[in-house]
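Module 6 notes. Inverse folding takes a fixed backbone as the condition and produces residue identities as the prediction. Think of it as a translation problem where the source language is geometry and the target language is the twenty amino acids. Below is one complete input and output pair. Work through it position by position during the lab.
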């Protein structure tokens, strides 16, 4: 193991370290997904059971990661709502703040992927993973390409956008875990979904249903209300004044 490549055949793992050729993971046979799992053999029940087990096991660390993401989101909402003024300085500051917000959002999402990968390796998902920047450039480029594909797909009655989002669902994992280049990561995600179509489709549907109807719906509603209050402070004041009784 080394911090830099020591010669031909050395490969970089998701922890950012370089390893000799003899420790390289074996490539899966044709028709199999990584890890030796045959194509189209995704077990939704086993995946959800494993996810819940790891969620309970690392509950404390996951709560800290979620709180950090929420705190960053609130800070950007508060600062963004307070930015005002006209002229060149105000415009440049707003542009800089918007770019910084986009960069931080990519950094946090990549950090969540790193935490998920750490859990699958049996490692503790430490909050510090949110600040790691290895492969971040490739991840941002890949994300922009996927966003462009989704935008173009919107012109196909939104069906094209859904198809692009579905087939590129795992691109971030290939970038962060294997260090793939943006185009290679997108192609790897497409091939993985294509080879496990039924299982991935079922998993995405179940995960979406759980997220939108069972996991913290009250928290999402409260955050939405907070966002509205920050975006429209005048409306809040008007409602407050209307509740004051007349003498």
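Target side of the pair, the amino acids:
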């Amino acid at each position: 193991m080394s911090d830099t490549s020591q010669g031909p055949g050395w490969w970089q793992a998701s922890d950012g370290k370089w390893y000799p050729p003899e420790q390289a993971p074996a490539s899966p046979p044709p028709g199999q997904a990584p890890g030796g799992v045959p194509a189209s053999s995704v077990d939704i029940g086993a995946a959800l059971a494993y996810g819940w087990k790891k969620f309970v096991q690392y509950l404390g660390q996951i709560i800290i990661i979620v709180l950090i993401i929420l705190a960053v989101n609130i800070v950007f909402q508060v600062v963004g709502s307070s930015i005002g003024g006209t002229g060149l300085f105000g415009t440049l500051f707003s542009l800089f703040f918007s770019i910084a917000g986009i960069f931080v959002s990519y950094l946090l999402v990549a950090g969540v992927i790193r935490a998920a990968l750490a859990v699958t390796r049996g490692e503790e998902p430490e909050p510090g993973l949110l600040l790691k920047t290895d492969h971040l450039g490739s991840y941002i480029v890949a994300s922009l390409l996927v966003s462009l594909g989704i935008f173009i797909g919107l012109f196909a009655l939104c069906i094209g956008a859904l198809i692009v989002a579905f087939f590129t669902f795992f691109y971030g994992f290939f970038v962060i875990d294997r260090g793939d280049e943006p185009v290679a990561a997108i192609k790897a995600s497409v091939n993985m979904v294509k080879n496990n179509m039924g299982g991935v489709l079922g998993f995405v549907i179940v995960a979406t249903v759980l997220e939108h109807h069972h996991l913290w719906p009250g928290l999402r509603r409260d955050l939405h209300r907070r966002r509205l209050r920050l975006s429209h402070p005048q409306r809040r004041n008007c409602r407050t004044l209307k509740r004051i009784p007349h003498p």
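Reference fact for the lab report: Confidence is low (pLDDT under 50) at residues 27-40, 233-247.
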